[in-house]
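Sample 1 of the test manifest.
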Amino acid sequence: MTDIVFSERGDKDTVETGDLLMPKYDADGLIVAVVTDHVSGEVLMVGYMNAEALRRTIETGEAWYWSRSRKGFWKKGETSGQVQTVHEILTDCDQDALVLKVSVAGNGATCHVGYRSCFFRKVTSPASGTARLERVEAERVYDPNEVYGKH
Amino acid sequence: MTDIVFSERGDKDTVETGDLLMPKYDADGLIVAVVTDHVSGEVLMVGYMNAEALRRTIETGEAWYWSRSRKGFWKKGETSGQVQTVHEILTDCDQDALVLKVSVAGNGATCHVGYRSCFFRKVTSPASGTARLERVEAERVYDPNEVYGKH
C-alpha cells in the first residue's frame, strides 16, 4: 500500500469541476484507463485499474493495471519489457475514466500480437451485412511467435 | 434494428488477428468506446455502446451510445448539437474496446461542463497525501449555465 489518498465522492459540482481526485469505480472496483502515446497521442490500449493499481501508478510513475482475466495486479512490461512511463494522468468530468499519456520502453510495441497499438484494425463500413476489419498498421513491431514461441 | 451483422466470438487467433468484427460485451452487454478528435487525436470522451448503438453508429456515421445512468439510447449531440461524425472505428486485439475518430459539430465542445474534452483535468502527483486535480484546458468553449440555465 502506498500513501496516496483519493477523496470520497462529493456532490456533482465537486466531482465535475473540483480539484480533488475522486475516482468512481464500477461494480468490480475498477476504473477504465485509456493509454495514449505521450508524443503522437495515438491510443495504444485500454486497461483497467483498481484503487491500488492507480496508487502504484501515481507513486512509481510506471503503469500498473488490474488484469480482469487473471484477477491480479499487472505491471505492464514486466515480462515483455514494454514498460509504460507515465507522463500525465487525466480524468474526465464524472471521474469514471482515466487517460494515461505514456512512453513505451523495450521494443516500443504495446500489443501482445506484435503491433505498436492494440487498435491495429479498423471496421470497414458496409451498408449492411457482415462487419469486417482491415489492418491500419501495416507492419508489426515484432513477431511474438519468434520471441515467445507459439502460444 | 439495422442490417449490419456482427460475427459470433471465434477462437483466440480469429478474434485477435482476423478480419471479422466480433465485439465482446461486458456483463451489461456494453463495450467501451474511446472517442478521439479525428484531426488532433485528442481523447474527447469515453462512452459505452450496446450492439444496437454500434450498429446505428456504423449505419448512420454518427455516434450513438447507451447511457448507463439513463438506461437508454443516447445520440450524442441530440440536444446540445455536439453531434459526432464518425470517420473511423478501430477495435483492439481482444475486441472488447473501440476507438472512434470523430469530428464534433455545433460549438465543437464535447463535455457538458463546457470544455472541448471531458478530460480537462490532470492528476497532480504528490509523493504522498491527497491526490489533486489541475485544469489542462484553460478556457471553456461555452458556459452551460448560460446556454441551459443552472442544473
